[in-house]
Amino acid sequence: MVDLSTGIAGGYCTKLLADGGAHITKVEPPEGDSLRMWSASGAEVDAEAGGALFSFLACSKHSVVADPGAEADAVMLEGLLAGADAVVWSPGSRVAELGSMAPAEILRRHPHLIVTAITPFGLEGPWRDRPATEFTLQAWSGGMTGIGRGAQDRAPVFVGGQVGDWVAGAHASVATLASRAARLGTGVGELVDLSMLESQILCLTYYPVTYFEMLGRPWRTERKPTVPGVATAADGLVAVGCGTAQQWHDLCAMSGHQEWIDEDSTLTITEQANLHAAELYDWLKGEKVEDIRDLASAFRIPNAPVGNGENVTAMDHFVERGSFVTNPRDGFTQPAHPYRISPAMLQPPRGAPRLGEHTETYRSAAVPVRPAPTPAGAPDRSPFSGLRVLDMTTFWAGPSCTHALALLGAELIHLESTPRPDGTRLIAGIPASVEQWWERSPIFSGLNTNKKSLTLDFQTEQGRDLLLRVIATCDVIVENYTPRVMDHIGLDFDTVQALRPGAIMVRMPGFGLDGPWRDNPAFAYIIEDASGLSWLTGYPDRNPYEPYSVGDPNAGVHALNALLLALEHRRRTGEGVLVEAAMVDAALNIAAEQVIEYSSYGALLERDGNRGPAAAPQNLYRSIDIDEFGRADSWVAVAVSTDAQWVLLREAIGAPDWAMDPALLTAGGRRAGHDLIDQHLSAWCGQRSSDEIVDRLWGAGVPAAKVMQPHRQSEIPQLAFREFFEEVGHPVNRAALHSTVPMRMSHGPARYHTSPAPLLGEHNHELLTELGLSEGEIAALEADGVIGRVPGARGAKKVSG
Fold first, then answer.
1. What are the domain boundaries of the chain?
2. Nearest to 246 by CA among 392, 483, 423, 489
3. Does the keyword Transferase belong to this entry (predicted)?
4. What are 246-290's pLDDT values in tens digits?
5. How far apart are alpha carbons 624 and 637 in whole angstroms?
6. Which of 361, 321, 359, 316 has its CA nearest to residue 338?
């Protein structure tokens, strides 16, 4: 592979591919990738070697310097492209921005290549050339407001740590591997056009457009802190979660307040928790962190310590699992691989290259040229046509992994049971008095189109036997239960291999298959707390806010990366593969910068509201508008990431005297004067509408964005141009727009959603008939409660032991 990218997104994409065994040649201009000089804490960096974050992302790669004006270097670069299988490209370097290096132009000259382009909005469309930063993309995505993070008395707050760049990189790796899977054996290349905005929508919001269109109301209308969330205990911070009614009841009992339990209440769990928040926080303040965690674990309530760059590496679970390793070149601490694969196929990291370290090697050695595609080419097809997957997942993390497979052509059998249907069927707030209430969840719909539903109570002997028969027909099995569930029914990798030699089993436990936290329940927010993702989110004078969003879909896209590597291994060897894609390992990787900065430079990164290290000024500013809920709560995001953009901003606002201070011409000066800049920009924005502010600043070339309500995503013209949303009908619900995937592939598919999310047990008869069951046998299973189409029934005969 040739890496023509700059920054975190492209660097992380190619790191994941290098971990899987790809040979990555990074092509840099003479001044190097700008990421070489990056340190979030402002530490001094060796330009030739690169800073610590670059050293982490560039592990196992080669570095070649190409001067854009040198003919010999142009010839060398053409040779590299001719000998490569794929290219990862992003704007930002003098090499990548050569006209001859435009993604479409690369593919025209080298039609065998997979060319994956990573851009803020996509290569085509009305916003294709608009400036953006990770911060302004979060604003456009709706991720700052849609999950209810923060508090209504302050501005919305972004998720810290440049998290959008990391998840875009993980999606770009998936997109590259998916394109390769579709094109194998044909020699035909493809242009893969990945939008970072669309990646953020999938990872920072919870299907808000589908929710709004199906139910006629938004998911959230105001910001409230998660309760308990990250709380102050007697000796530090602790995270305690409450995601289900049972967990709320257990939390009431655990804190000695059984009187708070009201099973007949019309209030949601969130509303009940907020009602008693003050008393709950008072109780937590009187207890020690470990005592709270021991008690919460005994009650099976999600909990975790609150991680950051200083403390996370010493947490007992991560120490026992070897979750951190030493950087092979520079000796700092970095996360281990984000997933584990057996047989071993992930490559141990090798030291990052110095700038141009391998240039002479490539000048003097010709790279073998890849064969040109056959004249007839290859028929367009979905990457995973013919792949059969048993989807034993629930809620968000697991289904987001398998949903991508379904959208890209795989046959997905989504396994549920009537006693325990998929949890997303139950969280839409539909009263049980509504007919078929369990079929009306927009969240379930958003995650499960193109799937079939099979209900089997595998806690019964009959259900387990049928489950094993289904497994024998599948290429891939994906599950995200806590390990004890699979232990109880005796379903492990060896069992799967005995039933289906060569099958791939993907296990997605929250904290992994071993270690002291192995059996702890893990919801997204607890994963965010433990890994450090929460630590950088919020205001310095308040406890961290849980992102409450990225932990699940980030786990899903990393599990999918691992699965695609496993499929490649099986293609080559015929062997089955076990993938352990723990949610927390994926989170530790996208929070890597905190540990890297602390272990390299002794710098503990801290949350700072909406300010951040990548731009100055960077903040949210209130406009004069009244929002759709009748509040003075409309905001714009502004992020000045270069000195040139500062000059553009000050001219766009009329060149006021305060902005003409020469000290503000440098990033350091603007950072020192951030309070003054905020004061004046707040006053300027407060007299104008959001549309006027964005038109003025964005039109002048300054990264700016409206802080969108997430259910308004479909109003963004760039998303309409790329057909990111597709309308999907449903037998029970009104037709609604559904999100797709964050990339467009030149060989299709032209449409992603081919069937609505299934009704509970909708395909029982079809799938059990395929197994050879008679009408009478199927009817008997339904009468016994082993299968069914209505929640609640349970079969009588349990699995022994």
1. 616-702
2. 423
3. yes
4. 899 999 999 999 999 988 777 778 888 888 999 999 999 999 999
5. 14
6. 321
H/E element, 467: helix 461-471
User: Cα-Cα-Cα-Cα dihedral of 35, 39, 45, 51, to 10°?
Assistant: -50
CA atoms within 13 A on the CB side of 272: 23
Secondary structure of 489-523 in HEC code, one letter for each residue: HCCCHHHHHHHCCCCEEEECCCCCCCCCCCCCCCC
Q: Enter the tokens of residue 762.
A: 């909708």
The strand pairing partners of 615, in sequence order, are 612
- CA pair distance 551, 527, nearest whole angstrom: 6
Alpha helices in 87-234 (DSSP H): 103-109, 134-141, 163-183, 196-204, 208-215
- Contact between 307 and 531 under an 8 Å Cβ cutoff? The reply is yes
DSSP structure string for 107-139:
HHH-TT-EEEEEESS-SSSTTTT----HHHHHH
pLDDT one-digit tens code per residue, 52-62 = 999 999 999 99
Question: From CA 557, how far away is CA 578, in angstroms rounded?
Answer: 17
- The closest of 760, 792, 786 to 441, measured between CA atoms, is 760
- Return the residue matching tokens 């109880």: 488
Q: Tokens for 566, please give them.
A: 């496993």
**10 Å Cβ neighbour count for 203?**
29
Burial (CB count within 10 angstroms: exposed 0-12, middle 13-18, buried 19+), residue 344 = exposed
Q: What share of the chain is helix, strand, coil (3-state, %, to 5)?
A: 40, 15, 45
Q: How many CB atoms lie within 10 A of CB 168?
A: 32
Side-chain half-sphere CA neighbours of 144 within 13 A: 30
The answer to whether 542 and 385 have CB atoms below 8 angstroms apart is no
Tokens 């008095």, residue?
Answer: 433
The three-state DSSP-derived secondary structure of 705-771 is EECCCHHHHHHCHHHHHCCCEEEECCCCCCCEEEECCCEEECCCCCCCCCCCCCCCCCCHHHHHHHC
Q: Strands 476-479 and 451-455, how do they pair? A: unpaired
Nearest one of 313, 319, 277 to 543, comparing CA atoms: 277
Coil, helix or strand at residue 26 = strand
Contact 660, 650 (CB under 8 A): yes
- Which residue matches tokens 């560039």? 58
Cα 261 from Cα 538, distance rounded (Å): 31
CB neighbours of 379 closer than 8 A, spacing ≥ 6? none
pTM equals 0.97
The alpha carbons of the chain give a radius of gyration, in whole angstroms, of 26
Q: At what angle do helices 163-183 and 583-590 cross, to 10 degrees?
A: 120
Residue with the two structure tokens 């953009």: 645
Phi, psi of 744 (to 5 degrees): -115, 130
**CB–CB of 150/74 below 8 Å?**
no
Q: What is the DSSP letter of 612?
A: B
Kind of pairing between the strands at 618-622 and 504-507: unpaired
How far from 616 is each of 38, 102, 279, 672, CA to CA, in Å? 15, 30, 40, 9
Q: Which CATH architecture has domain 616-702?
A: 2-Layer Sandwich (3.30)
132's tokens: 């953006």
Question: Can you say whether residue 194 is alpha, beta or left, with left for phi > 0 and alpha for psi between -120 and 50 degrees?
Answer: beta
DSSP-assigned letter for residue 798:
B
Check: CB of residue 3 under 8 Å from CB of residue 26.
yes
Q: Is the dihedral of CA 725, 730, 734, 735 positive or negative?
A: positive
- Euclidean distance between CA atoms 797 and 794, whole angstroms: 9
